[in-house]
Amino acid sequence: MNVGIITQARATSTRLPAKVLLTAAGRSYLEYHLERLTRTGLPVIVATTTNVDDDPIVILTEKLGLPVFRGSEEDVLSRFAGAASQYGLDAVVRVTSDCPLIDPEVVAAGVDRWRAEGDEGLYLSNCLERTYPRGMDYEVFSTARLLEADAQATLQADREHVTSYLHQNRAGDVRLLNLPWSGGGAQYRLTLDTEDDRQLLTALYEEYDAADRNCADLVAILDQHPELAALNAHIEQKKLGE
After folding, report:
1. 3-state SS, residue 214
2. Which of 95, 151, 153, 221 could form a disulfide with 165 if both were Cys (CB 3.0 to 4.6 A apart)?
3. What is the pTM of this model?
4. pLDDT digit string (tens) for 4-39?
């Protein structure tokens, strides 16, 4: 079974424009993100938009030797469906490019569990219940389920947020499985959505060698340095439909 990672990226983010192209310690956050994903050993596809503003994302991705799919900016569900179909995936790992510190071992373990379950109707994730820091999130599901969602979803939120049709079980027959983590840190933000997030990530990359740290290492650093965690502790995550 051909399982591949699709990560969504665009330059027109509202809270922090072109955030994935910003840099820390001499490299863009998108480069860090993609390098981590390739460590899983799975194919990695960048799903961006047809907007000319996203040309730099395409150029950078192709420079790294990774495939790109360009689709709708607003209808992200159709973008994922198109990417999965074009690259012949049987199952998809969905991640987002604002997670430059995503742990490849965490993602790979999720894929292994999804395969072991042997159920193409299964939606598996580590964020149905928040036990990991934000920035470690992944979702795994069959392409058949993705294409079903693309064909059936009519709510704007489902088109924009890709997987809500699945994890809200709108079809009525999706099996949901959450893989929790006991390592703590669920209160932390290791994602890139605001300027305060960027300040934390920059400090981690430039002062704590974050590029070489796994999830447990990063949680330990934040536990030991509450002044770092305080940089973005006040940020509220956007909710479904916002």
Report:
1. coil
2. 153
3. 0.96
4. 999 999 999 888 999 999 999 999 999 999 999 999
